[in-house]
Amino acid sequence: MQSILIVEDELVISRVLKAYxxxxxxxxxxxxxxxxxxxxxxxxTPSLVLLDVMLPGYDGWEILKxxxxxxxxxxxxxxxxxxxxxxxxxxxxxxxDYITKPFIAEEVVARIKAVLRRSPEIIRxxxxxxxxxxxxxxxxxxxxxxxxxxxxxxxxxxxxxxxAQHPNQTFTRDQLIDQVWGMxxxxxxxxxxxxxxxxxxxxKNWPSSxxxxxxxxxxxxxxxxxx
Length: 227
Fold this sequence. Notes:
2 domains
């Protein structure tokens, strides 16, 4: 069963969200301040965190930073601050989505399901895959090359994990944006090109005889692996 950690200091909002999520068979945990959120995140390893920005103790940005230092667990920011600059801060720091109060509980549930569908851990049956010297642990969201762990931003990591879930399959930019950025992404598809460029740089020591991220002109990208 997938689990959701709700980090929200307003008791009524937290209870309403919990009721709606349990109705669709999520296991729901609650935290009401920053310190409790950090403790429960470490103890429970939830499938997704629904994170309010304005909290007593550590605020949502500090908690998001803590989570991103340890995990690629999906995080949806929940806040009454509707300014675009706040939204951009959240995405820059690694948030997967952003919902502004007031909201409809059904919409929150739908957004959670959408983000979880894009989460590599949900899609992959086998938790570990090896392509020559490249080892991918889908459960731990970690990638090592010749025994050295590679570091990625959450979005770049999600992109590489998605391609690795479907080796030797070609995906257009639009398909990758849908799977990794989400259907509500309204930026340029150049984001895919830039992410691939950054990923290729980290894989420069991966022998071309074992695999590569290949560009198929007019079609898209694929993670090509060779026996």
